[in-house]
Give the backbone structure.
Amino acid sequence: SEQAGESVVESVYERVRDLAIAFELKPGDRINEIEIAGRLGVSRTPLREALNRLTADGFCVFNPGKGFF
């Protein structure tokens, strides 16, 4: 359902944000979507949605053709 998808994205958003805050994701490092998705036990779709939100909130930068940093 749409609601369940939202809560997964919300959870992934918070977990990735926490990784960034804990410096497990270093400033300027490229985010390996496959590795992070595997680590969090989610597919890349909710991860990408969460990364888009993190970008909008200033936690990440998206570089077309290169990915999220």
